[in-house]
């Protein structure tokens, strides 16, 4: 479903190197990254701040073109086939909404239906299902800017799923959510993956998300993959640590 082969992405800045001189400075956000995700997997993508997670997600969704290597999602080259890919993929960024700020949630969904050309019958059926599973009923009529973070997040998730994508990419979906909202969101994602077989790639700094949802974990550090395995494999990297936070902290600091 997702194939990444020796992908890299760098950014070039010009920075001051004296009174008059400026020099080129290259940041390698992602280097030589190789992994694949099979249909139906639920994968956690972890890494410290600045490790390259968002850059990877932007390459997978076609927002950024890799400077080296190859990326394929649902068989498509994301940056060249963004429109075709949009029909197969759902994307949610926890830090910003893709909904229309001044429109009631229901109208945002209607716009999504037009954008993705979703059949009216399918749209009604899916919206009814999502409305129930995500408990959207009480705030469908409210403009997005007036929603609480938890409500907005549920709205964003519904919008990303209205066209029934086969792969869902989530960038910190539980950020800022209270324990109850987090639990509800996790239950929903677990069901989506188990019942519909939707492939999910999730970045998060909340290891509770990983423990409760992910069958596989990948860790990126300084733009390179430093771990790829099951949750059990991850724990085994530091068996002396009792919490998953401590295990991951060890990995982030290169084994302590
Ligand atoms: N548009 C850009 N221009 C220049 N440098 C960038 C750009 N985007 C990202 N970078 C740099 O690339 C590196 C990786 O950034 P990225 O946002 O992918 O990290 P991240 O793992 O998502 O971090 P966080 O957990 O803090 O969100 C960082 O050093 C960052 O400063």
UniProtKB/TrEMBL annotation:
Keywords: Antibiotic resistance, ATP-binding, Nucleotide-binding, Transport
Organism superkingdom: Bacteria
Location(s), subcellular: Cell membrane
Pfam families: ABC_tran
Alphabetized PROSITE patterns for the sequence: ABC_TRANSPORTER_2
Domain ABC transporter: 14-247
SUPFAM superfamilies: P-loop containing nucleoside triphosphate hydrolases
One GO process term, biological-process aspect: response to antibiotic
Membrane topology according to the record: Peripheral membrane protein
GO molecular function: ATP binding; ATP hydrolysis activity
Keyword Transcription applies: no
Annotated Gene3D superfamilies: P-loop containing nucleotide triphosphate hydrolases (3.40.50.300)
Primary subcellular site in the record, as a coarse category: membrane
A single GO cellular-component term on record: plasma membrane
Protein name: ABC transporter domain-containing protein
Source organism of the structure: Sinosporangium siamense
């Amino acid at each position: 479903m997702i194939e990444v082969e020796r992908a890299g992405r760098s950014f070039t800045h010009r920075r001051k190197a004296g009174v008059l001189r400026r020099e080129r400075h290259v940041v390698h956000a992602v280097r030589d990254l190789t992994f694949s995700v099979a249909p139906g997997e639920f994968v956690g993508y972890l890494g410290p701040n600045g490790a390259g997670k968002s850059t990877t997600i932007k390459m997978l969704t076609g927002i950024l073109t890799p400077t080296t290597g190859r990326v394929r999602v649902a068989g498509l080259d994301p940056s060249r086939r963004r429109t075709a890919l949009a029909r197969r993929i759902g994307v949610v960024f926890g830090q910003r909404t893709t909904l229309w700020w001044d429109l009631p949630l229901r109208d945002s969904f209607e716009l999504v239906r037009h954008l993705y050309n979703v059949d009216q019958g399918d749209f009604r059926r899916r919206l009814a299902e999502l409305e129930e599973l995500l408990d959207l009923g009480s705030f469908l009529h409210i403009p997005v800017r007036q929603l609480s973070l938890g409500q907005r997040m549920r709205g964003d998730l519904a919008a990303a799923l209205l066209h029934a994508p086969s792969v869902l990419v989530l960038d910190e979906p539980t950020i800022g959510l209270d324990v109850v909202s987090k639990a509800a969101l996790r239950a929903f994602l677990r069901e989506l993956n188990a019942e519909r077989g939707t492939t999910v790639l999730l970045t998060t700094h909340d290891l509770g998300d990983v423990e409760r949802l992910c069958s596989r974990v990948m860790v990126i550090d300084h733009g390179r993959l430093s771990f790829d395995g099951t949750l059990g494999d991850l724990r085994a990297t530091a068996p002396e640590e009792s919490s998953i936070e401590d295990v991951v902290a060890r990995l982030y600091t290169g084994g302590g």
